[in-house]
Amino acid sequence: MVRKFDFLIIGSGVAGMSYALQVAEAGKGKVALVCKTSIEEANTAKAQGGIASVTNLEVDDFEKHIKDTLIAGDYISDRRAVEQVVKGAPEGIRRLVQWGVNFDKKEDGQFDLHREGGHSEFRILHHADDTGFEIQRGLIEAVRRHPNITLLENHFAVEIITQHHLGVEVTRRTPDIECFGAYVLDPDTHKIDTVLSRVTVLATGGCGAVYATTTNPNIATGDGIAMAYRAKATVQDMEFIQFHPTALFHPGETHPAYLITEAMRGYGGILRLPNGEEFMQKYDKRLSLAPRDIVARAIDKEMKKHGIDHVCLDVTHKPAEETRRHFPNIYAKCLSIGIDITKEYIPVAPCAHYLCGGIKVDLNACSSIRRLYAIGECSCTGLHGGNRLASNSLIEAVVYAEAAAKHSLEHVGEYEFNTAVPEWNDEGTLSNEEKVLIAQDVREVGQVMSSYVGIVRSDLRLKRAWTRLDLLYEETEELFKRVKATRDICELRNMINVGYLITRQAMERKESRGLHYTINYPKHAYDQK
């Protein structure tokens, strides 16, 4: 089956929905929003802490936010991208509010601002401790109301379509690679449809599910990055995987692990060993409010040193009623497993959280492939550099969605549908035995990545990961060629591709920088002379 849309958006988090609403409102063509599962399931909904924007001009300004972002990024952020996001943030917030998103306010009507690790001022807008969920809720209602958006839930994008599918040999040196749409698996027919588009936008989120433990939902398998990489797009900075220092330690809940927001440390939470001893003073003068990479490495070191599987976050010294009011969901979650956070420590441990790299894009969110945009966590804008500043990700998605919408609306009239694209060859079958192998390989990818490409790395660990991923790649590609494409095997392919990219780009960086820490090169390149 062949379908045609002027704008094809793959992914339904804050980035994809923001973009969809803006191009739909412009009325320049048909818009399709492809969701891998339901529209409700996205990384956006898991973001508890908040969204960063300069709003209190009495004490804060753009230059402070820019400086905080550059420091957190270990000075390898693209300053142009940082300025674009920081200066575009207030307008992005205004647009979210216009679409129906609610942020907490004080009695005087001003935003109730939080402060998080790495921020020099209170500039985090929030909705209790479920900000991402509230943003997702507001945008979903706006998307469902819009008559010009076709919502394709439970549809899975298998590949983006380029000249390669027309029989042209495409390499990384091929000039003017062009995207004509995507092959998309329809859950009702179990067939792969050819979806042609004038403009294609990847908003597929992150890749935390390639690790054994992550705050991301199971669907975060790096699909957009893998598809773009196979289509020969430029992918950059994949070595910079942010490990959130404080996921709730609760064996059995690993995909996703429950996130204990950064805001809880901003509120006054103190990191301790299970015996009550503080330890952050040994690592950073900012103590528990140091940037995430420093806190995660400190916790990792303390856990290895003491042979323990978690540390603790303590808010028992704070007023109980205030804690329950500020963090109602965290309070309820911990209570459900027998922990009253107003009286007891919260067991926490680091786990894979956020990807700072991805599909390389310019200030208009254009990838290196013509007619293909990337926004949100799957993109590498240059904002984050070596490490993401807390709560910058949601606002980056909103600001770059606007940049992509503006640019694509200006150029969509220049593009035609390519009707020469062939339909997908879906011969083959998948046996139950092969399904078992796929499930086992998914687990193996997680074990390899967590063991060898985690918070602390080494040349030996990375080489081991490379060798095992290479073997999995060969086996999976051979299987993919002879079976009918299903979501399971496509996700496994994508996870292996993304694991390979993280590992390879980690091997190429011969220094410790930002989130990439290796015992073989413990200093910055400029410190190693």
Strand content: 5-15%
Share of helix among residues? 25-40%
Q: Based on DSSP secondary structure assignment, what is the total number of beta strands?
A: 16
Estimated structural class: alpha/beta
Overall radius of gyration: 22 Å
Low-confidence stretches: none
H/E element order: EHEEHHEHEEEEHEEHEHEHHEEEEHHHH
How many helical elements?
13
Q: What is this structure, in a nutshell?
A:
With 529 residues, this protein is of the alpha/beta class. Helices cover 36% and strands 15% of the residues.
Q: Can you tag this structure with a few keywords?
A:
529 residues, alpha/beta, seven-stranded mixed sheet
Q: Would you kindly provide a written description of the structure presented here, covering whatever features stand out?
A:
With 529 residues, the protein is of the alpha/beta class. 36% of the residues lie in helices and 15% in strands. The chain has helices spanning 14-26, 62-72, 79-98, 131-145, 223-230, 263-266, 292-306, 320-326, 328-336, 392-411, 432-452, 459-482, 487-508; strands spanning 2-10, 31-34, 51-52, 124-125, 149-152, 156-161, 181-185, 192-202, 235-236, 241-248, 270-272, 311-314, 346-355, 358-360, 372-374, 379-380. Strands 1, 2, 5, 6, 7, 8 and 15 form a seven-stranded mixed sheet that branches. A four-stranded antiparallel sheet has the order 10-13-12-11, covered by helices on one side. Strand 1, helix 1 (14-26) and strand 2 form a beta-alpha-beta unit. Helix 1 (14-26) runs parallel beside helix 10, helix 2 packs across helix 3 and helix 11 (432-452) packs parallel to helix 13 (487-508). The protein is globular. 53% of the residues are buried. The model has no long low-confidence stretch (mean pLDDT 92).
